[in-house]
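Hi C.,

You asked whether I'd gotten around to modeling the 817-residue construct. I have! Everything is below, sequence then structure, no commentary in between.
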Amino acid sequence: MASDRIYAALPDPPGQSEGEGKEEEKKTFGNIFAELESVDLPLGTTLRSIYDDQPNAHKRFMEKLDARIRNHDREIEKMCNFHHQGFVDAITELLKVRADAEKLMGQVTDTNRRLQDAGREVTAQTEEVIRCRVQQRNMATTVEKLQLCIPVLEMYSKLKEQLESKRYYAALKTMEQLEKVYIPRVSQYRFCQIMAENLPRLREEIKDISMSDLKDFLESIRKHSDKVGETAMRQAQQHRTFNSAVAKQASMGHYIKPVYSLNEPTHAHTPNGLLMDDDTGDDEADEEILTAQDLVDFSPVYRCLHIYTVLGDRETFENYYRKQRKKQARLVLQPQANMHETVEGYRRYFNQIVGFFVVEDHILHATQGLVTRAFTDELWNMALSKIIAVLRTHSSYCDDPDLVLELKNLIVIFADTLQGYGFPVNRLFDLLFEVRDQYNETLLKKWALVFREIFELDNYSPIPVETEDEYKLVVSRFPFHDAEIEKQDFPKKLPMSQSVPQIYTQVKEFIYASLKFSESLHRSSTEIDDMLRKSTNLLLTRTLSSCLQNLIKKPHIGLTELVQIIINTTHLEQACRYLEEFITNITNVSPETVHTTRLYGLSTFKDARHAAEGEIYTKLNQKIDEFIQLADYEWGMAESDGRASGYLMDLINFLRSTFQVFTHLPGKVAQTACMSACKHLSTSLMQMLLDTELKQISMGAIQQFNLDVIQCELFASSEPVPGFQGDTLQLAFIDLRQLLDLFMVWDWSTYLADYGQPTSKYLRVNPATALALLEKMKDTSKKNNIFSQFRKNDRDKQKLIETVVKQLRSLVNGMSS
């Protein structure tokens, strides 16, 4: 309002009414002054407009400005005049207040001093409080940060403890929590950075340690495989024995609670297939049943598997584990060089293999994917081929049937054990048929020794029986039935020698031994029956037959022994049907079955008997040859001694006594032997006459030779062996008889006239034979009758001989042409 008054009191500028130019100039300077008085606008432009305008604008501006200033001064003066009294009053009041103000100033100063003195302690305490508050705030901040750091440190400490206690899987989980949860909260601190940098190194250490533990485990499991396999095979054997006992009890119509059972609810199957007993308080088990977990600590495998899984490197671990196990499998499958020498060698070999696959089966079921069924099947197929090759090779070295039988039992238990774990074992049972052939070969070799020993210890004489008990003992060992002998009083003799019941008993023992191999082969009774019969046939047709043939050919076996051998083979041949009944009773397979194999014992004993008969004939001839070699004829003697030669009488006595021994032989055998002996004697005597080294024979020698032939004919006519019809036996000497009669009677005219006629008296005399003997007599006549040319009869006889010789030569030449 004051300003309005001031502006209203200001006079109007002079010359305002003087024209339009003045008015315009006044408006312009008014705007300029307004701009200058305004503090908000810049002055540069305004001042420039003043100087840049019309000439003398500055001067006019200055004049206007002075006028403006004077106007303002007048307004200020007016205002001061208007407010002067108020101002005077205010000064007066102010002077009055001045003393009070000074007093108040002193009081305030004093109060301020005293207040400063009083507040100095407060200030100190306040500063202390501030410092404490700062410390408290720092402590709170520190506590807050420590609360964030302490869990990290605790987890890291926990990690260290887990590493020290080898709890590596838990340590990896702790590391994972540290990395994802705890360390990110305090990642700005140096110690957390150090921790974070150490974690990868710790992971590598855990991997290395776990891998080292796995290697130790693999080494340990290689050592423990034997024990694991032994336990598994023992349990399989107990299972098989138990099943057999249950089957027998079931067949008997009653059942007894078993000592243990694989199917009772009180038992549970672990993933590894081994039996584990529940804690039911049942004390029926004889011993604790161990599993693979009881024998082997699998924690290194689990731990290492989990560790590599957590670390994302499971595939590397699986590949390494499988590779190492393959190497161990190849080592396990390598047998010892002397494995075939003892059953323990085979048992250790099987135990190691079973232990290996039991462990793999446990790993298969206890882990997910570490090993697969395809991997175990691949290992098993590789192992099975190697096992079969090893067993085929080493079993061929076995020459002990007991060892082969134990090997078979081990193979069966081995196969049953692995079959229980799901491995196919058909090829092993096929291998057992090859082993069975090997077993039969070893049995045959063993029984060949037994038979040879029996034959060597036999006395080849009938078995003497003094009492009925002795008779029953023999009959219990050999099926002998003879009504005539049973009627005889004791003591008496049985026709066979002691080797017969022994052979029969040993054949039954062989059947039992062969049957042992057929047990547990999961074969039908028909197949077992067929195997037994084929094995027995091999024993009879090959082993026993060979032993009999060798026995018969032995040089120390005489005619008496050969006769007894023929008798023995006859009784053994009759006992073959009892052997068939024996096999039938064992296998319960009817002999009428279509495919039942028959025993070939009949042909075996027949062949042996024929060989013995032939040997009898041979030995008789050899004995005759020995006597013939003792002959000492004086071929130039003038006349005979009037009695038969001593060697021939000894020969006839020998033949007579020998043929008496043949009474127990079949009639045809004795007759054939006698006929063979007589023919051989006749042939030997004929050869003696026609011997090329014999150059001269006298008529006296012919007469002496005739006496010997007469004794032979008398022996033949005395029927040394019954059963010959008429003069059948004498016909053996007919060639000699006709030849000697021709020379004794000197009936050459009849011989030459009837030669070639069926009714000829000398039909059996060959011209060549007569010629050879006649020439020897002709030479003798020339030598002994030097003066025969002076006696007419001798000259006629010599001419007759020469004539007969010519005619005989013509006959011989005619026959040859």
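If it helps when you're writing up: Confidence is low (pLDDT under 50) at residues 1-17, 251-287, 785-790.

Thanks,
B.
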